[in-house]
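Hi everyone,

Forwarding the result from last night's run.
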Amino acid sequence: MGIIRSILDTDLYKFTTSYAYSKLYPRACGRFQFIDRDHTIYPKGFAELVKSEIQAMASLSLSREEAQFLAHGLPYLPPTYIDFVRGYRFDPQEVQVSQDEEGHLSIWAEGLLYRITLWETPILALVSELYYQATGAEPDMQYAEQRIIEKARMLREHNITFSMFGMRRRFSFDVELRMTELLKEHAGESLYGTSNVYIAYLLGLRVTGTHPHEWIQFHGAMFGYKMANYMAMEDWINVYDGDLGTVLTDTYTTDVFMSNFSKKHAMLYTSLRHDSGDPFVFTEKAIARYKELRVDPTIKYIIFSDSLNPERAIEIADYCRGRIGASFGIGTNLSNDVGNGVKPRNIVMKLYSCKMTERERWHNCIKLSDVEGKHTGDPQEIELAQRTLGLDLFP
């Protein structure tokens, strides 16, 4: 059995975004690029190991029980899409993997967006786990289990509502599963759920998640940067009709998002997701925008998900208390705190370019972060977006 054991071993937003593409933009194509922010030198032959794992994924198929779980646990996905997932097979020909002479890893995935988006999270998870296998890293499970129990109890005692967002940079599937089991046992009702659909299926947990940056990046490339946030929010509403009401705010910086955030969207979306920059500054901006739109911020939420640990979540929750709701998506700190000097991978897989139909030319997709050094995409396109949006930002 390969590292990826089920089509469900992915984050919820991969299925929800895939369905949104299939409903509104079924002919759209995309290219995803693997990015290692640490510029890791991978062991010789690592690319071949990745190719082997990707080839093994071609044999995965959804079981009847897994399909039933999707139908009952994700009621906003229609039967037609569940049928698609039942017939879906990963196609390794959609992915190109190579390694240069120095050892840097290159991975590209290209194809119809409703299909190609499903590669992102599993590729990140298998690269992370393979790296630890290839370098002989071993988890200290006694340490890891003790730490996760301490974290679970701390979050429960402070009434912190959180979800496990830890698949993409996990140490391994087995570690993520065990950590989630212990969170379920010791965090009680503070654990709202997990973004990993397969682990939710195995442990009987709620599946949680939002939409990704790629959804706004696609709209930016297709409809222009000034309209990207607005169009992305409108399309999400058209697909999900009030379900999945969390909106991501930092694809083209928080300030640009807030200027696009209308009274309609402030009422229809239940929460904003914070994923980069100072969470306290973001909180003030969110509250100010809600008040400007004459929306009571105390009936809304911020989902914080940027490099969190329990202590940071408690600090943020105390800052928000009585002013705006706060919930948390905690990832790597819960699925890859395993001791023995193991360092989590700093890897992402981003939408690099897209086009509305196969015959059209490719359009570059970029992301402008609130944090220095985290812009992604073609440098000339980044400069164009900054000028279009009137931004004078770091490169």
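Residues 193 and 206 are 5 Å apart (CA to CA).

Cheers,
N.
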